[in-house]
Amino acid sequence: MKPFQVILYYYYAPIENTEVYRDEHHLFCVENNLLGRIIIAPEGLNGTVSGTPEACEAYMNYVRSDERFKDVQFKVDYHDEIAFQKLHVRVKDEIVNSDLNVNPLVRTGKHLEPSELKKMMQDPDVVLVDMRSDYEHEVGKFKGAITFDMHNLRELPDHVHEIEHLKDKKIVTYCTGGIKCEKASAYLLEKGFTDVYQLHGGIIRYGLEEGGEDFDGKCYVFDNRITVDVNQVNPTVISRCYICNDSCDRMINCANAECNTHVPVCHKCGEEMEGACSPECKAHPNKRVYDGTGYYVSNSNHYNPLQGMKSLKKTLKKLKLAAKA
Hints:
This protein is an alpha/beta fold and 325 residues long. 27% of the residues lie in helices and 21% in strands. The chain is built from nine helices and 15 strands. 41% of the residues are buried.
């Protein structure tokens, strides 16, 4: 068993005091040596967290101890090291950027368990639709799935016309962990699709519980692993090196910080190009040092990793003063 865990989750539930909850949440992660990315929004939680099994177990218990999130589903994987280099707990307007103006708590596609999907994929009336970004499905997707040339979920309205002719079919949406499909499937229902499903827990859960059969390639993830194996039954490679065009399922971010494009690049080309996707990027003055992984810590956008602790200490101080008064 590998020594560290990576846990992926989301949950839609109203959060009123997002700043206060962010501060408390952040402090718990710091005290338990957890790293990762967590988004807190008025509509709920979304996170990927990594640490020791004991720390991750404590975190899952902490989240579920809140009545609002007692039913949250965690996808647990193992890794040789902590899958992040920093901790970010941020407050945002949405837990997944979409601008689709839908509320999954009101209406969304029918949840489909991994075992149910495995059976439904044999049905000729079932159509799988990938709701992830283009660079994600380039390296891996379900066999026969429809994909869109979109960079994020906000672009979905520009592509719905591509599946208009399938409104009489059973539409099954899928994504990495399930979060995008909550809104994507709701949006399809708004647009007149009537028989809409979503893979509950996403690709990751399907791989963990059903062996990933008929998922071609690898699954793109948003931590320093970049991609993970899903299919333990009939794996294959569908992507090709961006530079030499050889078969390749190894993804990198371009070393040029101003490019940062996500592309498959084989080890040989990665070394020769110093992690860059083109000669121009290799010669760029903002090219980052390539360490062989193609993963770089994103800019913090002025985020202060101690902000949550400082805010929480101020809040506790005010509460103590109020109690004495």
